[in-house]
From TrEMBL:
This is IS66 family transposase. Residues 172-453 form the Transposase IS66 central domain. Residues 116-158 form the Transposase IS66 zinc-finger binding domain. InterPro entries: IS66_C, Transposase-related, Transposase_IS66_central, Transposase_TnpC_homeodom, Znf_dom_IS66. Residues 460-497 form the Transposase IS66 C-terminal domain. It comes from Rhodoferax koreensis. It comes from the Bacteria.
Length: 503
């Protein structure tokens, strides 16, 4: 007889039952831990991580240099707007502008006075002209616009008349609005950093230095900001707003390293008439950022379970949960373990989404009636099943966590049933934030907080233009042309969802 058997032989029945119960609890705890780790390991295997390196590569250096050029020009332009006195030239020595290459095709655009009859009644004579050249770009082809402004003089009273210089988004700059729109769309929609654009332009016949491109981007960012502010104000007039956030690396000044910043996205409700999204670049994921953006707005906020949104609910904002997030918990569980609990939950939720597809084109009132008649019974049955199943599941397991997420947020997740204007999930804003995730692979990082905010502003206009079915290039080209002469009180006419191209 071994030692263990001898020990057990001296225990009475009660002690044996107590030992068995203790062993069962230990086994149950260890099995739950194994299941949890197995689930997490399966999720990690599904994720694809980019190579991690703290080396400051040549490619990263190029991105940093162009960001500095953009920031420097933006600061200079902002100072010029705030100061009526002449702004001294930047400390950096400015090279003398070289003439545009003679081999590029020229297109003459003539500007003559509407009237060439002098006040004294004499017919003026053309005595000369001023020529200003601006660089234009069509994909793969450069051309030069020659703006010829004729000079007309009266021989009798020596009066001189000339057509005025048209206002331009970059005063005395050489790029046309078409070239500026191309640079912005390539950088913020096609995710091409300026050093890559420099090479592309070189193949087209003129390698524009990235420092020059950076200065153009910085100036455009300053000019477009009032339009983005108006877009934000328009979104906050709606009762339903979507919100989400995604991480973006930002360079820490003076450290040569990056830290995690966040790009927040806000959009009018999926069932609202206004199709618009605004990105807000912030140095952290703190809830104060969402609070600062929304300000005094009080409505229904569609968001995930991130704690940063919770303080908004205390101040009167109504929380609307995302059923897709709840479904994702069960989907991950089913993918990792083939759990029958997860499968049944997915089947319940699929029925709700089927009803939503049928009601998508209905009015808010019809949608609410349909949800009350069809969705509410399904959700009530699902809730009862979740509660019953949770009582049978061990705490700490992946199954328990999936169940707890839905049960803890049940009121927010089902709020859409009583309001036909509320969406069933937050997929609308997640679709708008997806291009940012694609761009991260090309940006590597934001060179500064200002650079991140500038990029967020331009991307807000580009993505909103896409939402309204506009070509971002055509939209930005037209807006940059009209913006310098647009009255501040009418800037809302240039918002993507209100924009009408000039005929």
């Amino acid at each position: 007889m071994d030692v263990a058997t001898d020990t057990l032989s001296h225990l009475n029945a009660d002690e044996l039952r107590e030992m068995v119960q203790s062993l069962r609890q230990t086994v149950s705890f260890k099995q739950a831990t194994i299941d949890k780790l197995t689930h997490e390991n399966a999720l990690l295997k599904r994720l694809k991580f980019a190579a991690q390196s703290e080396r400051f590569s040549a490619e990263q250096r190029s991105l940093l240099e162009e960001t500095l050029d953009e920031d420097t020009q933006a600061v200079h332009d902002e100072m010029a707007e705030l100061n009526t006195e002449p702004i001294p030239a930047r400390v950096k020595d400015q090279p003398k502008r070289q003439p545009l290459p003679a081999h590029l095709p020229r297109i003459d655009i003539r500007h003559e006075p509407d009237v060439t009859t002098c006040r004294c009644g004499c017919q003026m004579q053309r005595i000369g002209e001023d020529v200003a050249e601006k660089l234009d770009y069509q994909p793969g082809v450069f051309s030069v616009e020659r703006h010829v402004r004729g000079k007309w003089a009266c021989a009798q009273c020596e009066t001189l008349v000339q057509a005025p210089v048209a206002a331009h988004v970059i005063d005395k700059g050489i790029p046309t609005t078409g070239l500026l729109a191309q640079v912005l769309v390539a950088k913020f929609a096609d995710h091409l950093p300026l050093y890559r654009q420099e090479a592309i332009f070189g193949r087209a016949g003129l390698a524009i230095p990235r420092s020059t491109l950076g200065a153009w981007v910085g100036s455009c960012g300053v000019q477009l900001q009032p339009l983005v502010d108006a877009l934000k104000a328009d979104i906050l007039t709606h009762r339903v707003v979507h919100a989400d956030e995604t991480p973006v690396q930002m360079l820490q000044p003076g450290h040569g390293k990056t830290h995690r910043a966040y790009l927040w996205a806000y959009a009018a409700g999926a069932f609202e008439d206004t199709k618009a999204v605004v990105y807000d670049f912030c140095a952290s994921r703190a809830g104060e950022n969402a609070k600062a953006f929304l300000g005094t707005w009080r409505g229904s906020l569609v968001c995930d379970d991130f704690s940063g949104y919770k303080q908004l609910m205390v101040q009167g904002v109504t929380e609307v949960g995302c059923l897709a997030h709840a479904r994702r918990k069960f989907f991950d569980l089913h993918t990792a373990t083939k759990s029958p609990v997860a499968q049944r939950a997915l089947e319940h939720i699929a029925q709700v989404y089927e009803i939503e597809r049928e009601l998508k084109a209905c009015s808010a009132e019809e949608r609410q009636r349909g949800r009350q008649e069809h969705s509410k019974p399904l959700l009530d049955a699902l809730h009862a099943w979740l509660l019953l199943t949770r009582q049978k599941v061990t705490d700490g397991t992946a199954t328990a966590k999936a169940l707890d997420y839905s049960l803890r947020r049940w009121q927010a997740l089902t709020r859409f049933v009583d309001d036909g204007q509320l969406p069933v999930d937050n997929n609308h804003i997640e679709n708008q934030i997806r291009p940012i995730a694609i761009g991260r692979n090309n940006w590597l990082f934001a060179g500064s907080l200002r650079a991140g905010q500038r990029g967020a502003a331009v991307m807000s206009l580009i993505q909103s233009a896409r939402l309204n079915g506009h070509d971002p290039y055509a939209y930005l080209k037209d807006v940059l042309t009209r913006l310098p002469t647009q009255r501040a009180s009418l800037v809302h006419e240039l918002l993507p969802h209100r924009w009408q191209p000039q005929t």
